[in-house]
Amino acid sequence: MSGVSVRPAERRDLEAITALYNHFVENTAVTFDVGAFTVKAREPWFAQFAADGPHRLFVAEREGAFAGYAGSMAFKAKKAYSTSVETTIYVAPVFAGAGVGKTLYERLFSALGREDVHRAYAGIALPNDGSIRFHRRFGFKEIGTYHEVGRKFGRYHDVTWFEKRL
Ligand SMILES: CC(C)(COP(=O)(O)OP(=O)(O)OC[C@H]1O[C@@H](n2cnc3c(N)ncnc32)[C@H](O)[C@@H]1OP(=O)(O)O)[C@@H](O)C(=O)NCCC(=O)NCCS
């Protein structure tokens, strides 16, 4: 898509990143956080990412406007899991379906291809057909479902996990 650029996230992006994430926290069950974050409260999350290594964070802009972010995080803390990451991606609703997510994931997986990362995982809270289609398109394969593993807005949600070989 023309006009979309992706670059490594910087601290100055955290306000826009947090505002976008809060939109999904407050209005949807695609994430199981239940209360909006302040930018300061989101700093420990931001601190897990680096300019190199397996844990990266990228932001997308379209004609100068913040359009979304994608990142890779530790899958689990125990050391032998260090070759696996969990990915995260959020695109501003106004830009959904316009190639922003694709551009972000292409950049993220290009970066991870140069790192010692063997598997990527995405946990998708149901229903989220768009995210399932999107992750399948990037080579993620369904591996299983945790049934009614979370409750948000008064109802239980399944989470289906997807795996990508790198
Ligand atoms: C899911 C999400 C990341 C996709 O990003 P996007 O910028 O909208 O997707 P793109 O326009 O780059 O689409 C890339 C591919 O995914 C597919 N896709 C994306 N959204 C889709 C949808 N809602 N329904 C069907 N397919 C979809 C497209 O068909 C496209 O495939 P193509 O290139 O072969 O045509 C984005 O819509 C989003 O942030 N959704 C809300 C938050 C969320 O669910 N995050 C993931 C939590 S697990």
Indicate the topology:
Blueprint: E1 4-8, H1 14-27, H2 43-46, E2 57-62, E3 65-74, E4 84-91, H3 100-112, E5 119-125, H4 129-137, E6 141-152, E7 155-165
Parallel strand pairs: 4-5
Antiparallel strand pairs: 1-2, 2-3, 3-4, 5-7, 6-7
Bound molecules: coenzyme A.
In DSSP terms (H or I, runs of 4 or more residues), the helix count works out at 4
Could you say which small molecules are bound to this protein?
coenzyme A
For the termini, the CA-CA separation is 25 Å
**CATH class value:** Alpha Beta
What pattern of helices and strands is seen along the backbone? EHHEEEHEHEE
Q: Number of domains in the coordinates?
A: 1
Strand percentage lies at: 35-45%
Multimerization status: single chain
> Strands across the major sheet, in which order?
1-2-3-4-5-7-6
Plain-language structure description:
The chain has 166 residues and is of the alpha+beta class. It has one domain (4-124): Gcn5-related N-acetyltransferase (GNAT) (Aminopeptidase, 3-Layer(aba) Sandwich). 24% of the residues lie in helices and 36% in strands. Strands 1-2-3-4-5-7-6 form a 7-stranded mixed sheet, with helices on both faces. Strand 2 and strand 3 form a beta hairpin. The radius of gyration is 15 Å and the shape is globular. The mean pLDDT is 97. Bound molecules: coenzyme A. The site of coenzyme A (COA) has 21 residues, from strand 4, helix 3, strand 5 and helix 4.
Key features of this structure:
alpha+beta; Aminopeptidase; seven-stranded mixed beta sheet; 4 helices; binds coenzyme A
